[in-house]
């Protein structure tokens, strides 16, 4: 729902999507397979990357255009012993482009999402030039584990190590379509009082 500029009423559209998830015990109480998926029009906000789910169509009377996209995740959880848990996940999120161009004040101007007129020329250098960078795809992989080093009367305490790799790709525009990635390693500590 959007209140379009110059209009005195809300502009709205419908979005549709479908999805599902499952946890499948491959080896009971030792190895679980987990997967989830959602896809459709206007589903970007339901993924962890929070991709856009709609854009504005400047065509008179149109207003909002839902973007097609999907989010998928798959992983394994392995528990070889009561004190140890290991996991690995891979995931991907994508969104479609919906570019619109219009002449504004004698200049061809980009509207919508993923237009080839978006200026990406400054995306390779921080703080220099423009970087529209409309995201097209996020891919990631995670490996990690937990060690429950204490389990007793006071509860349980665990320490974990996780390494995640994330890649971001953008739609091509003026200056190309540079991508970037990051690797994140985290050490965590958890204490659950009075829980074994």
Q: How many distinct beta strands?
A: 13
Helix content: under 10%
Q: Which range does the strand content fall in?
A: over 45%
Number of helices: 0
Radius of gyration: 22 Å
User: Per the principal axes of the C-alpha atoms, what is the gross shape?
Assistant: elongated
Stretches with pLDDT under 50, minimum 5 residues: none
The profile of the biggest β sheet is:
7 strands, antiparallel
Distance between the termini: 48 Å
Q: Strand sequence of the main sheet, in spatial order?
A: 3-4-7-8-11-12-13
Give the SSE string: EEEEEEEEEEEEE
| SS class | mainly beta
Mean pLDDT: 90
Write down the oligomeric state.
single chain
In words, what does this structure look like?
This protein is an all-beta fold and 196 residues long. Helices cover 0% and strands 62% of the residues. It has no helices and 13 strands. The protein has a seven-stranded antiparallel beta sheet, with no helix packed on it. The protein has a two-stranded antiparallel ribbon with strand order 1-2. It is elongated and about 75 Å long. The model has no long low-confidence stretch (mean pLDDT 90).
Provide a short characterization of the protein structure.
By secondary structure, the protein is mainly beta. The protein has strands at about 1-5, 10, 15-25, 30-40, 55, 65, 70-80, 85-95, 100-105, 105-115, 135-150, 155-170, 180-195.
């Amino acid at each position: 729902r959007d209140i379009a500029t110059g209009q005195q009423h809300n502009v709205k559209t419908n979005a549709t999507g479908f999805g599902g998830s499952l946890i499948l015990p491959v080896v009971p109480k030792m190895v679980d397979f987990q997967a989830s998926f959602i896809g459709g029009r206007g589903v970007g906000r339901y993924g962890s990357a929070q991709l856009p789910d709609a854009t504005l169509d400047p065509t008179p009377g149109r207003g909002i255009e839902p973007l097609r996209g999907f989010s998928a995740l798959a992983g394994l959880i392995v528990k070889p012993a009561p004190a140890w848990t290991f996991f690995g996940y891979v995931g991907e999120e994508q969104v479609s482009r919906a570019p619109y161009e219009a002449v504004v004040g004698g200049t061809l101007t980009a509207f919508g999402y993923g237009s080839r007129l978006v200026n990406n020329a400054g995306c390779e250098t921080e703080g220099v030039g423009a970087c529209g960078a409309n995201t097209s795809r996020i891919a990631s992989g995670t490996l990690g584990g937990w060690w429950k080093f204490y389990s007793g009367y006071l509860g349980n305490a665990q320490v974990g190590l996780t390494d995640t790799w994330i890649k971001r790709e953008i739609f091509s525009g003026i200056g190309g379509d540079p991508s970037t990635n990051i690797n994140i390693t985290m050490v965590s500590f958890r204490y659950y009082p009075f829980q074994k």
